[in-house]
């Protein structure tokens, strides 16, 4: 049930709030216990929904964007979320400061890509390979580095090899993040050409 209405956090907060409200209303406000319990239940249920994480693309007009495009973008991001979470978590498991910093940077870029696609679902196709391939592989490589590092006698050569792959993945992450901006710049260039053509036609310059 929690998977439908959020994560553990919103349930915990709602439960604590209800646990505080009921005795306050019953003992300090003098309400009958059954009325306090009903109010507590309403507070509990209300907070579950109020604090539930926002659904991807919530509030966007599906008709304006196209239901098919919106569902494609939503499915793509939803499938990539676990990999992004694993990548972020792995940074805290890595002892090497440089590698941990690089992995955190990868997680930040992934979050930036998510935000850009949420802002413009039509751009999802541009980063499809990033979300479905590079992001999960980056999580696996980062976790692999942490696993090798946890050995009593880590293989320095293997650690160096994995770190090198993470460096190359960082370049790929930056490339895909910037590609979303390039798509917008292409649209801007087209608009500029159209405006310049109209100005030349209307005012001769």
From TrEMBL:
Keywords on record: Membrane, Transmembrane, Transmembrane helix
Any Pfam family: Halogen_Hydrol
InterPro entries listed in its UniProt record: ChloroindolylP_hydrolase (IPR018770)
Superkingdom of this protein's organism: Bacteria
Membrane-spanning ranges: 9-27, 33-52
Listed name of the protein: 5-bromo-4-chloroindolyl phosphate hydrolysis protein
UniProt organism field: Rhizobium freirei PRF 81
């Amino acid at each position: 049930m929690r998977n439908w209405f959020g994560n553990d956090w919103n349930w915990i907060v709602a439960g604590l709030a209800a646990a505080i409200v009921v005795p306050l209303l019953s003992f300090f406000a003098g309400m009958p216990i059954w009325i306090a319990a009903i109010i507590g239940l309403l507070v509990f249920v209300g907070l579950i929904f109020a604090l539930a994480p926002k659904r991807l693309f919530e509030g966007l007009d599906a008709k304006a964007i196209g239901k098919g495009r919106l569902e494609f973008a939503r499915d793509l991001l939803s499938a990539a979320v676990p990999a992004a979470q694993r990548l972020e978590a792995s940074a805290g498991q890595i002892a090497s400061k440089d590698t941990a910093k690089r992995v955190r940077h990868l997680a930040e870029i992934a979050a930036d890509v998510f935000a850009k696609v949420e802002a413009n679902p039509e751009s999802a196709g541009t980063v499809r390979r990033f979300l479905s391939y590079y992001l999960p592989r980056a999580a696996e490589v980062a976790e692999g580095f942490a696993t090798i590092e946890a050995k009593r006698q880590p293989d320095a050569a293997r650690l160096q090899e994995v770190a090198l792959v993470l460096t190359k993945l960082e370049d790929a992450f930056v490339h895909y993040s910037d590609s979303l901006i390039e798509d917008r710049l292409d649209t801007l260039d087209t608009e500029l050409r159209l405006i310049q053509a109209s100005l030349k036609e209307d005012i001769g310059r």
